Structures are given as C-alpha cells and as structure tokens.
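This follows on from our talk about sequence and fold. I would like you to pick a protein and set down its sequence and fold. Go ahead and set the record down below:
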Amino acid sequence: MLGYYVRMAWKSFQRTPGLTLLMTVGIGLGISACIVTLTVYHAMSGNPIWWKNNVLYAVTMDPWGSSRRAHVSRVPQQLTYRDATYLYGSDIPKEKALLTLLVGAVTGTPGQSRPLPLFTRGTTAGFFRMFDVPFKYGGPWSAAADRGPEPVIVLSRRENEKLFGGIDSVGRTLLWNKHRFRVVGVLDHWDPQPRFYDLTPGGGGAFAKPARAFVPFKWGPTLHMWPGGHMACGNSSAGHTYRALLNSKCTWVGMWVDLPSASARRRFLALMSAYAAEQRSTGRFEGPLNTHLWKVSQWLRMHHVVSERSRLLVELAFALLTVCLINTVGILLAKFLRGAPIAGVRRALGATRRHIFMQHLLEAAALSGLGAALGLALGIAGLSAVRALYAHSNSAYGRLAHFDPLGIAWALGLAVVATLVAGVYPAWRCGRTPPALHLKSQ
C-alpha cells in the first residue's frame, strides 16, 4: 500500500510541477532560515562544559554594599585582590583558580626580529585541570610554580606554531616582558564558546578568542603589572601606586572553584559569609552581605550571554516558516480539492476515508521532505555565507556559524512539523468529501 501511495504522489507532482516547485521552495526557504538562526543561537546559548555544571562555581563578593548599588548594574563579576587571595587560601575546593589578564610581549624565539604582543592570562595551575584544558605537548605547571612564582609559560597551539613552527617546544625558553620563561606546555585546540570562565567586557566578552599564553598569576603582582582586562571600582579609587591597587576595593580578579559535594559548597559559602561579615565589622565592606556561588549555567544566564538580537532573529525565522506553511496549506487545499473527483472514484471502488487521508498526507510529507532537503542545502550555504561575511571581524556569528549534525536534526524536526501543519487539514478535508458528489458530476 505504501508503494501505491508513493506512485500516486509522484503522479500528482507530475500533473502540477509548477505548484510542486513553488511549495518545495517555500518550505525550503523557511526551514533554511530556521536552521541558520537555530544553529547560531544554540552555539551561543550552550554550556560548553555542561558535564561539570554542578561542580564548577564562579565566586562573587560585593565589597561596595547596597549604598553603592546605584553605580553598578549587578553583582561584581570579579573579586578584589585582597579577597581573592584570602579565599584562594582555603583547602575546601577540590580545585581552584584565579584569573586576570596581563599585557605581554615575547622576544627571543628563533627567527623573531621584533617583539610580538601576546594576549596573556595570569592564572593558577588549577585552571587547566578544572576546565579540562587539553594539551598537545607537556602539561600545566605545578602548584609550587604558583607559589614561587616560577618563570614558566604555557602557549596556545596557534602561538606555538607561530613562535616555534609547531614543534614540541617544551623545555625551550623565550623572553616574556624581558624576563626569561621556560615553556612547560602547549595547548591542543581549545576554544570553549561562549567563553564562560571570563565574561567581562574588558576581556573581550563571551565570544572573544582565548588567551595565547598563560603564566602563573603571581607574576602580575611580582612585576607590578596593572590588570590588562576589566577593572571596576564602584565609587572607590585604585590609587596611584600598585600597592594601593592591591589594597583597594577595585575588582579585577576572577575566581572559580571546584566543589564536588553539597557539603563542600555549604562550607565554602560559610567561609565566604564569615569573611564578609568580618570585613564589614572593620568597616571595609558596606551594606548587607552579598556573597554568591554561581553554576556555569547560572553564570551564563546572569550575564545575558545570548543577545536580544539573536532571539529576535530566531523569532523572525520561525515567522517566515509560519508564513510559508500557511501559503502551502492554501495551495495544497486547492490542489487536493481540484483532484477530489479522483478521490471520489476511489471511494466508490472501496477505498476508505483513512486510505484517502493517508495518501494525501503522504504527498504532503513528500513535499516537506523535499523542502527539508532543499532547506538543508540552503542552510549550509547560509552558514557558509555568514562565516564569509564575518571572516575578517571578531564577531561571534562568524565563529559560531558552523554546520554540524544538529542542523540535520533541525531539518528533520521542522519537516515533521511542516507535514503536520501543512498536510493534515487539506488531507482530512479531501477525505471528508462525499464520493457521490463527484460521481454525479462525472
């Protein structure tokens, strides 16, 4: 019976090739627009480290108090140096990491004729273990290197190719800000999007490229290097000296902790609250206590990683698909009713309403399948066009517009929706037509 339905659908397509093409193109355009926008939206709104969502936490603490809240839009994204170093001394977390950005330049590598500016992240060894950072050569530095700090550096894969031609450079040395550093590791490809661990605007935002090199966090204070990323001070001041910056209420240090159990989370929150209460009693903190631990998913939502423009694009794409499907419903209804005499003859020969309904629904499904195939091809072309359009910019759209198996799932799902929306009513209406009405007219 299925083969018979397929032959009937094919003959119907042959009788009206123009209408068939029109409906296929309409459905294909709607599905392709949805594929492009949904693919980018999913990449932007996804949690790149979802398997650790319940153990990784961003640490925030408000040193300014409620009296200063008029000057900031939300909880400070980072900690002061004083607060961060105190909390980092706790042994409650399984892993912990401090983060800041440093302005660096590299010299002293083979064939290098001039200093190379290097976007460098000052951090601690726990950063690499906590965020499952992959290594191509070597590995992270030791905890002892953090305490030193020792002159060690981890290079990104791209930077290693630029400086050392892509070879295993572990053990080699270079000059970072005129100080000799030893390469201990080279990352493999690692570019989590969105860049959940640093959403600050000073760091480039959620979709900025990752750092090109990593050095122990303490090198910033050791060399008196002012933060190269985002720094917020509320109504206070960073002062004019580096010592004043370290003792100020300016927030510029990010902190993440790995708390594998509910007990560890309660203990760490208690530590944070006790410390904040102590700071408030001395007059350093103002207003009520405002300490938080944020899961990765909560952190992304709080910072509104997905823009309203992206949501609007998805809504417009589905609006286009809806318009295409409404037009398809009208065309299919007119086409099916025009072929109702044939259905009437089949009913007179013994076909049931169910048979007529299934035949016409299969025809609508075939149209939707063709539309999905066309939409898939147009979607791939659309994503390629977006990448080409933003190839020379730092836009998130260009770097996230990559086709993956999810696009096939979108196409198949939307094809099913198109079949149900566009085909059910015309097929049902045709099956309900009394056969005698058409037999009399013949």
